Amino acid sequence: MAIIGSVIKNIINVTDSISTENHPEENQRKVLKELLEKAKETAFGKYYGFEKILESDELEKTFSEKVPYFDYHQMNEKWWHRLHEGEEDISWPGAPSYYAISSGTTGKTSKKIPVSQEMLDAIKQSGIKQVTALANFDLPSDFFEKEIMMLGSSTNLDKKDDHLEGEISGISASNIPFWFRGYYKPGEEIAKIDDWDERVKHIAENAKNWDIGALSGIPSWMELMLKEVIDHHNAETIHDVWPNLQVYTSGGVAFKPYEKSFNALLKHPITVIDTYLASEGFIACQTRPETSAMQLITDNGIYFEFVPFEPDYIQQDGSISDDAPVVSFADVEEGKDYVLLMSTVSGAWRYLIGDTIAFTDKERAEIKITGRTKFFLNVVGSQLSVNKMNDAIQELENKFDIKLPEFTVSAVKVDGEFHHVWHLGTDDKLDISEEGLAKALDDILKNANKNYKVARSKALKGVKVKVLPMEVFYEWSGANKKKGGQVKMEKVMGEEKFKDFEAFVKKQLS
Asked: How high is the pLDDT of residue 17?
């Protein structure tokens, strides 16, 4: 038995046993009070009367009544733009040391999201919570001596005036605790390389020098890196290079759509643990192996609210209407989709992150991500959310024994009538035509979703499928990534983005 690993595992077991109790309602009330107290003297706090809100006997209710919803553009135009002009104490005390650059999955311009020192501390604490939760996964002691490959954006952050800018994964990696640096790969030198392809090339060249036990990163980009390592060493699977690989910590997007193609790169199964880290904060992480659901981190700098995810409350651009109802943690229902709102220690207030979630276990505060408000395809009443699309693609994979790790779908007018146009990414040889795939996909969605079936009998006149090599999706994402980062592929494209993608595809295949 590995002695050091055994000691580390025992420490984790003890720490986890101390911190297993979870009181989400109490935690959230305490976090909201702390946020309001800290920010009451900021311009935002004074404008919305935080001092008065704190006097209320119904803190959560009064807060939701006095402060409106904000998406990024509203928050930036009304408040955060003043930070860019050198002002301080706008929506959080002082000025941020970092800005997380996020292109998201839709807009053309990058977002600049403030990241305070308190947020960095919160992310570190959440990371420790996830590490201690490994005690629940029955991993061998020697696992805790292995190295961790964290595949994020470049840690070579841009210096702008009195702050640094980069993607949140790069900011987090540049602030890892000193005691963790010996485990962290690819190491500081390689992690600073801006060019993604160059960085992956260095990882592949050095791969056999490392004893990797765990991976962390977005699935699509992790697959690309693993393929490069496998090819460089003329190996059959990644376990031929890293035989002690046992854990993959996924994040950023749902892992399910990538499961089949990811597992094809392995010699044997590994433990997959989901995390939910966004530019706005560390939101949730999986804490037990019996479920893939993640536990909301309710005691660490983020106050959550939930808007019922119903078509009447969702605008065409993915924002929510001003009169949309909201519920606090105390009143959420299991199995119901909600739009997630966050108020944070970086000065985001009642902030629409753009994700939808559902509670799978309220007592444990466990959730699953069910989609994106902007990825809600409802142009003709089909009411397709991302999770419904993912389920349909997975059923298509199983039906025809193929791997379809990437897809996009758009509602497009063809001869004056609306059609859903799907682009499916695969490198597999298909024994079925695009027309056959379209019919099968259409039938799956009709059988699974009543609203879609009704739409297909009325305004949605047809379904088209175009099969593309995976390289096209990689190149599209590569053309849109910032600072060697990892762009999440748009699952639903609006008309303008669809035209851009079609033109890109034509150029790539010509």
From this structure: 42
Q: 293, 276 in Cβ contact below 8 A?
A: no
- The DSSP string of 81-111 is HHHHTT--SSSSSS--SEEEEE-TTS-SSPE
Task: Give helix 3-18 / helix 117-133 axis angle, nearest 10°.
Answer: 110
Assign residue 281 a region (left: φ > 0; alpha: ψ between -120 and 50; beta: otherwise): left
Q: Quick one: average pLDDT of 90-103?
A: 89
Distances in Å between the Cα of 142 and the Cα atoms of 9, 212, 223, 235 are: 9, 12, 25, 24
Which tens digits make up the pLDDT trace of 161-184? 888 888 888 888 778 777 677 788
Alpha-carbon distance 228 to 223, whole Å? 9
DSSP code for 67: S
Cβ atoms of 12 and 130 closer than 8 Å: no
Distance CA 505, CA 473 (A): 9
In 3D, which of 334, 365, 304 has the Cα closest to residue 24?
Answer: 365
Helix ranges (DSSP H) in 211-281: 219-232, 259-263
| Nearest of 405, 409, 347, 398 to residue 376 by alpha carbon | 409
Return the amino acid letter for 167: E
Report the C-alpha gap between 329 and 60 in whole angstroms: 10
364: helix, strand or coil: coil
Measured between alpha carbons, how far is 112 from 289 in angstroms, rounded to an integer?
Answer: 35
DSSP strands (E only) in 227-380: 247-251, 271-278, 281-285, 294-296, 302-308, 337-344, 351-361, 366-372
User: Does 26 have pLDDT greater than 50?
Assistant: yes
Could you give the CA distance from residue 484 to residue 461 in angstroms, rounded to a whole number?
41
Cis, bond preceding 405 (omega within 30 deg of 0): no
CA distance 303 to 114: 17
Percent of the chain residues past pLDDT 70, beyond the cut: 89
